[in-house]
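Section 4.2 – Deliverable D4.2 (structural model, holo form)

The reporting period included a commitment to supply a predicted holo structure for the target in complex with zinc ion. Inputs used:
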Amino acid sequence: MAPALQNVDHFLDEDSQIKMRLLEDSYKLDNENNNTDLKREVNDKMSGDMDFDIVKYEAMEFRAQIRWPDLIVQVSLHCVSIYGFYLMITNQVKFLTTLFVFATIYTSGLGITAGVHRLWSHRAYRARMPLRILLALLFTITGQRDIYTWALDHRVHHKYTETVADPHDINRGFWFAHVGWLVLTPHPAVEDRRIALRKTSLDLLHDPVVKLQKKFFIPLFLLLNVILPVAIPMYFWQETLLNSFVVSFVTRFTITLNIAFCVNSFAHIWGNKPYDRFIRSVENKMVSLAALGEGWHNYHHVFPWDYRTSELGRLNVSTSFIDFFAKIGWAYDLKAATSLMIINKAKRSGDGTLGETEEPDPTSTSDSRNWD
Ligand SMILES: [Zn+2]
Ligand SMILES: [Zn+2]
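Output (structure tokens):
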């Protein structure tokens, strides 16, 4: 069975299990480097790709329209954030407030990286209920829509990367991939694939945590992303309402958004490609530092089901976080590429920069936990 698909069956109903079997078959075919036409057919059946004619969409004349309410929200958040930075730099907010803002950014960020990304979008590991609740709460603090919508869009991004069906297609430029896609009407191909992948992403709504977070997203968003971050500095160290609102809500929210945006923009443009030089996603240290290990994006697009999203030895706070919960039994079935898989892939299609960094042990074929 493909590594990403181990032990997920009991999450799924019969229909989904059939689809997972098809996916499994496609992985088998891939691994055996077998009949690629048959593999494509299996994949197409699974995701409704049989009816999807990307050439038709690529040829279509499309002019994106500005979604004014979204644009106004983004412009307002960024303008107020400039004022928030001014308040922090000139010491007009209490030091504890600034500390609280950055602590919240990095703690809640784990809800994106270890939660909605590696757990829910990619099923790169499994998590027990308490960890899933913790991750859902952390993710909600970031305010980045509900788990279901985020994970679905991310699956579309991976499946149709660098095509018109990619929600933040890097071929449309840095700004489009960074934030433009959130303030413009989506390409019809994106809409088409969002609908198609809803049918193959039933696993998401079978998780009660995802279902509840989706159902109560607005009150949870207001409580966790707005009310509590504003109230805590006011209650515990008497920050003013205005400072707390500007810095602990707007600026914090905007910084978190931009860190996530950087994965879609910077990590698809600037960096090296040790694993696959034919794709645009890259290894970007600065993004990894800011995004808790999510900037090793060339690796991630090659092995999206690997819970580490990077090779062992890279700075990856989110991987350490998952490893910690694996130790106490809340995270399990951690999927990881073997060093042999990584080296073979790098030899086949990398840009030759793998050896310039820490190279994995070529003799090991076991999973990451036995690497060293
Ligand atoms: Zn990407
Ligand atoms: Zn991903």
